[in-house]
Write a structure and sequence with these properties.
The chain has 478 residues and is mainly β. The chain has one domain. The protein contains 5 helices and 22 strands. The strands form 2 sheets. It has a 14-stranded antiparallel beta barrel. A two-stranded antiparallel sheet has the order 2-3. A hairpin with a 4-residue loop joins β4 and β5. The longest helix is centred in the N-terminal third of the chain and has 14 residues. The N terminus is likely disordered.
């Protein structure tokens, strides 16, 4: 049982809640195509005429479910291993990973900018009711015994992975000598690559004999499903043929990002007839609504609903039915249908709504190279889907001091998230390369939680220095 739980958790961490957090550069004029992911209106504020994110990857997660422990040189192993945390509490995990390929931004003029790109994204969510876990547990009745007062046991596992080509546009709404107001929109066409939904509810059990720790289940509700395209993968066929069949069975969906940005110009440094003065600001305030949409899936052939328990099975007999010979979903189904009262297929289409969120971002220029950014993320549930089919991001507040020029930068994001964790991040930019960590504190701890994550991006832009616009002849007033 412990090995199975560890395997599930580890797989979700490696696979990767939907969000594209290149946190260090949020609010920066130099964020370019990366900035579009956090506010599509920001694409117009960059002083460079274009940039392309050749490659970017980001992972971010928050959990109290397990931790990592690295054995010292004197121990039998030096591997970094995951362990489930002991204790009696609700377990949770929120995780996200995204891969950005050839995300491009082009400024057509000082009034309009366009962008496009291809992203592969994944979001995962795990939550449970309160239950007690101890790593000394060796058999099923021991687990049931220490959780007798935690009934009913409940758990939810949700995963969604999709491909996302998109187009984006930012445009100027208004400008005066004191401010600039811009707006932006990104439209995304999603292709569901893999979905997984599992829900355990109303798991009850009772003692067979008073005073003896031997238990039998009395009721259960279990629903599990995966996306139909996974059934199309045939190891006997070529990779190209499998990909064609897989994508052909993938369902379509869509989502949108919206944003506005208010730039308060720095009047002290404005030079007459200088186009770049619109990028010199005292305050920059952005508001964006992100990931308003969903990914769609069709239930796979082995997706099932199960409920009730046949009275002839004790707890030990129930767990014995799921031994090492149960190594495929088909054999799991065969075993499960012999112990539950109702067993049926799950059919049809289901939608997993994105982790929609409202983002408030305020950037303050302190000096030519030094800025302070403040950001507040507020998760929203707007798409009308089952609450158990909604990916979630955590609310968070982040303060990021940064020292940044066009080619080099150093960043120190400080975050408090909805799980109550404090993260101290760090990031550096050197030419086209941006590398950062959401939280460096776990590396200073002996048994750290694997919270935080990191990001890496390679962004190219024009290498020559921006030239000053030439002054124009102006006729003196009469």
């Amino acid at each position: 049982m412990k090995k199975s739980l560890l395997l599930i958790v580890t797989c979700f961490i490696l696979q990767g809640n939907k969000a594209q957090f290149y946190q260090a550069v949020h609010g920066s004029n130099f964020a370019g195509s990366l900035g579009m992911l956090n506010n599509p209106a920001s694409a117009l504020a960059s002083p460079t005429p274009w940039d392309i994110t050749i490659f970017g990857i980001q992972a971010r997660n928050s959990t109290n479910l397990f931790y990592l422990e690295k054995y010292g040189p004197g121990k039998s192993s030096e591997e970094l291993l995951p362990f489930i945390k002991n204790g009696d509490f609700k377990k949770r995990l929120n995780a996200a990973i995204n891969l950005n390929l050839v995300n491009a931004r082009v400024k057509l003029s000082n009034h309009i900018s366009v962008g496009m790109g291809l992203n592969f994204r994944s979001g995962n969510r795990i939550k449970t009711s309160t239950y007690n876990f101890q790593d000394s547990i060796s058999e099923a009745n021991s687990f049931l015994h220490i959780n007798i007062s935690n009934q009913p046991l409940q758990a939810l596992v949700l995963s969604s992975s999709w491909m996302e080509p998109y187009g984006s546009m930012a445009f100027k709404i208004a400008e005066s000598k004191n401010f600039i107001l811009t707006a932006g929109i990104s439209a995304k066409v999603t292709k569901g690559l893999f979905g997984l939904t599992t829900k355990l509810d109303n798991a009850f059990y009772e003692s067979i004999l008073p005073g003896i720790p031997v238990y039998q289940p009395t009721d259960i509700e279990l629903q599990y499903g995966y996306s139909r395209n996974a059934d199309e993968w045939d190891p006997s066929k070529s990779l190209l043929s499998n990909m064609k069949n897989y994508l052909g069975k993938s369902e379509g969906g869509g989502s949108f990002d919206f944003g506005v940005e208010w730039i308060v110009k720095d009047r002290k440094n404005i030079e007459l007839f200088e186009e770049r003065t619109q990028y010199n600001y005292t305050w920059k305030i952005g508001v964006s609504l992100l990931d308003l949409g969903y990914a769609k899936y069709k239930y796979g052939l082995l997706s099932r609903n199960a409920s009730g328990i046949k009275l002839s099975f004790s707890g030990k007999s129930l767990f014995d039915k799921f031994d090492s010979t149960v190594n495929t979903l088909a054999t799991f189904n065969d075993s499960l249908k012999t112990v539950v009262a109702q067993f049926s297929s799950r059919v049809g289409i289901y939608k997993v709504s994105n982790a929609t969120r409202l983002v408030f971002n305020v950037d303050r220029t302190v000096s030519d190279l030094f800025n302070i950014n403040a950001e507040f993320n507020l998760p929203l549930s707007i798409i009308p889907t089952d609450k158990d089919l909604q990916l979630q991001t955590l609310p968070s507040i982040t303060i990021t001091p940064r020292i940044e020029g066009r080619k080099y930068g150093a960043y120190l994001p400080l975050t408090i998230n909805g799980d109550g964790y404090f993260w101290m991040g760090a990031a550096f930019k050197a030419g086209p390369l941006l590398i950062g960590m959401h939280d460096v504190l776990p590396f200073l701890q002996k048994t750290p939680y694997p919270n935080g994550g990191g990001y890496l991006a390679y962004v190219i832009s024009p290498s020559e220095k921006l030239k000053k616009a030439k002054a124009k002849d102006v006729k003196c007033p009469d």
